[in-house]
Design brief:
Elements: E1 2-6, H1 8-13, E2 14-24, H2 28-35, E3 39-40, E4 45-49, E5 52-56, E6 59-60, E7 77-80, H3 83-96, E8 99-108, E9 111-121, H4 124-148
Length: 149
């Protein structure tokens, strides 16, 4: 598994309750751009329409040698998941107010996969607490590392 891109802001802004793996429909030049690492997941989200799931706001830069075969970088792309999973996600999102947020994009057995998180938004005090916790953890690791020297 080779990670192409991660949505680091997602874990800062949301509590990720569960994650799901989905395939993604792409054209040839988009796959070439992904191999070059030219993708951005920031500010992207997933929506469910008529029993199908789509990713919105994901930017895949046009492939330089793709000329007329390049697609719109911000186009809505269909995700490939089992119908049961989509219906379960749809029910959860509608009833409990969760959001579907792309977490990471990666190659798995030469196929592009998107990790989608079932997320609940954080309040400002939750974000501050997480930042303080990460800072304390970094300080402890730094102190341990210096003590070993």
């Amino acid at each position: 598994m080779k990670t192409i891109a991660q949505n680091k802001k997602a874990r800062h802004d949301y509590f990720v309750e569960e994650t799901y793996e989905a395939g993604i429909e792409l054209c040839g030049t988009e796959v070439k751009s992904l191999r070059a690492g030219r993708v951005n997941l920031k500010d992207s989200w997933c929506s469910i329409v008529d029993g199908e799931i789509f990713v919105n706001g994901m930017h895949i830069s046009p492939y330089e040698q793709g000329n007329i075969f390049n697609r719109d970088p911000m186009r809505v792309r269909k995700l490939l998941m089992h119908k049961k999973e989509i219906l379960k996600l749809y029910g959860t999102v509608k009833q409990t107010g969760y959001s579907l947020i792309p977490i990471s994009l990666y190659f798995k057995d030469s196929k592009v996969k998107l990790q989608v998180g079932l997320c609940k938004g954080k309040k400002l005090y939750d974000k501050r607490a997480d930042m303080a916790e990460r800072s304390a953890k970094r300080d402890m690791e730094r102190a341990i590392k210096e003590q070993r020297r």
